[in-house]
Amino acid sequence: MMRTRMRTRFTSFVLTCALLSAMGFAQSGHHDAPEKLGTVSFSTSCSGTVQPQFNRAVALMHSFQFASAIEAFHAILESDPTCSIAYWGIALSDWGNPFATGLKSQAQLDAGLKTVEQGRGVPAKTERERAYLEAVAHLYTDNATTDQRSRKLAYESAMAAVSAAYPEDTEAAIFYALAVSAAADPADKTYARQLKAGAILDRLYVQYPDHPGLAHYIIHTYDVPPLAARAAGAAQHYSEIAPSTPHALHMPSHTFTRVGDWQASIDANVASVAAARSAGQPADELHASDYLEYAYLQTAQDNASKGVVESADQIFSRFDPKMLIGGAGGATAAYFARAAIPARYDLERRDWASAVKLQPLASPFPYTEAMTYFARGLGAAHLKDGVGARAAIDSLAQCRDRLNTMKEGFWANQVEIQRLEVVAWLASSQGQPEDALAGMRRAAEMEDATEKSVVTPGPLAPARELLAELLLESKRPAEALVEFEATLKREPNRFWSLYGAAEAAKRAGDQERAKRYFNELVRVAERADRPGRRELIEARGSLSGQD
């Protein structure tokens, strides 16, 4: 029921978004459409003439339009050079997306520290404004000797102090909650930080329903399977609050993806892709395209998904890796989507022959190259190409080791999961089912122990889904059904888990459950290409009694 309400409300709004995207966005330099960024009130001691500009700059920052925010803060300083708090806004924008997984570049750190030092050179007019600048300084100070997580926690503590010292300062509370949420440990399954941040954001959202940061950060904070439904209201409204920003159009799809509302995700990302293109934000365009590709593939709209694949190279050609700060999506998002989109297309369509031909794109981020090697390895294993599978396994190990050297532990772990999966499927192809199942169980346990990065709508292939498919191949349908259902709990409405659950139930003799899952599959894929995938033809035949 929740998915139906979300889809109806969002779809009715997406036409407006598409119109706006054609007319220009916050970073596009076009102003034909009235700019709508939401309502922000950030009091300052700066000249009264720049206060509206300051509120606009903070609103841009809340929707992760960092380059535009920096430009706006610089314009404020030109009008009022004594507005030292503007340096806080520039420094926080220099940090970029606080939810991005991985280490900030040295160039970003240098830029942020320089901004902080410039701000310190302009005497603060109030202790509150000084406290904001000194808080953000923690993100950059001693970055050669203090690890990133420690600096993020120091920033969080400083913002806690600002919020406590100025309890009427709504913005301080919002930025504090953002710091709490952004520092969440992906391995913490109590979701303590998400719940703590969410309590602050939810309370304020009731009071300030037009605030862009509140809706935005609620979606991010609850972007984990057990909590996703809590973001339903924010997901419905955020695109209406700040339609002049591509990220506000995309962000609701994080929630839609978590609850398996694929059409709502498609609508959101069609609008966001168009908006990002108009705004000149190719990294954001690619990020939204990856979410769009994922949703198309879950609904078996393979022709539409092919169009996304074909456009990815052209979008990436417009991406400038030297650009430090733009919108929500940075270099990591661009390289990630460029690798993920074609890999998803081949794997989700079970086109193993195409998967083995994918070519890795050299990247500063080894985990993006790893996606291509994973797709090649899984394809080779299914084709019983031991040489190809082993080559992919070796390449994945090299990517993992590079990531460990770079101190990117989260991503090293993700690549190791992929390596174990290819090893398991290679073992299966070589007639070693028990070794294969043991390896896949290990991979599934590792995947269960963490959460995905916000850069991806989901893994290229969920580990428990792959485990279930191995169990089905091993003629253990009852066990396979358990694993397919576990996947659906974490990744609702996934095409292959719905089909697999139906097939496993049928082979286990549970015809009622098989019928239920076939029904769900047909419903989820109601807009699928016709005649479409063999599995959908089978599902329709089974439901009509022709199976």
Automatic annotation (TrEMBL):
InterPro entries in alphabetical order: TPR-like_helical_dom_sf, TPR_rpt
Signal peptide (residue range): 1-26
Protein name: Tetratricopeptide repeat protein
Superkingdom of this protein's organism: Bacteria
Signal as UniProt keyword: yes
Keyword annotations: Signal
Pfam families in UniProt: TPR_6
Species lineage: Bacteria, Pseudomonadati, Acidobacteriota, Terriglobia, Terriglobales
